[in-house]
């Protein structure tokens, strides 16, 4: 800016000095002035179309007064908004883009909010993260939320929201947590529509119903799917074995593999040292699934695990097992799925007898995983 003024001044001086005989403008100056005018124009256009941190600030203040109207007594920290600073990027629970020009995240979790959901979140056109968990929100999710196309993270867990779920517009979503609410109806309105980038989906503890056996086939990035404690029916989804974690316990799902009780989480923390799989696990006779992938267990597999009569899935993928495949795996006759991908076996598929296990759900899939083991 300063440079521009100097440019303009020196040009005027030139004009008066030389009595306008030589009225060639300094070409460098004119370019700068042109750029300046362009910048002014662009800034104008942007603020007219409403995309600035100031617009976001106004909508946040709408949100604040909406919340204050519904919650006259107990209020969360949103009531401090606009008190210390007028810059919304500094307000509690608000995050902004790196250039501080747009609001990209709103965290109102645990904020003592009751009543209906705000129905103008779509006015934050760059909103990527929205966390409204642990409040007492009731009613339905407004249609407006479906227009938040940039949302990557949505957490509505631990509220009393109800109604049917139609989230077809949230196609950028990577993490979705709707657990512990009162949603009902089929989830086929939302899946696979929003599957594209989804990594985590938690729908547990609701009243969802309907079949699930095909809905998640297209969710190729999905790693954690929790459908537990609902009223889902039909057959179990057989694609689950490629997930890191899957639970459909406490539903009405039937089929070739009944509802699983997974212990995966219990032992999946990475302790950083090599230890054997606890032999005590062998005494939990009801155990149907044991997911111990991505760990550093020692390669000695306790024989006590053979006692698990109901064990249908055993996942010991990515445990850094090397050498020949452990002979004991060939004796897990009860298994429907054995996942050993991501280890560094050199051989042993037939010498262990694993290739002869007969109960596998989908032989094609399992064989593929074994090949993967040997070649990669
Ligand atoms: C949502 O916010 C925008 C921007 O402040 C405003 O123009 C619009 O009227 C609001 N819509 C609703 C339904 O409140
Ligand atoms: C959602 O919020 C709850 C409660 O605040 C939290 O425990 C949970 O981890 C969150 N879910 C995800 C997927 O981040
Ligand atoms: C899903 O949410 C429930 C309750 O909020 C929680 O207990 C469970 O661990 C979550 N599941 C996953 C896979 O994060």
From TrEMBL:
Superkingdom assignment: Eukaryota
Signal peptide: none
Entry keywords, A to Z: Leucine-rich repeat, Repeat
Entries under SUPFAM superfamilies matching the protein: L domain-like (SSF52058)
Record-linked InterPro entries: At_inactive_RLKs, Leu-rich_rpt, LRR_dom_sf, LRR_N_plant-typ
Domain Leucine-rich repeat-containing N-terminal plant-type as annotated: residue spans: 54-97
Record-given protein name: Leucine-rich repeat-containing N-terminal plant-type domain-containing protein
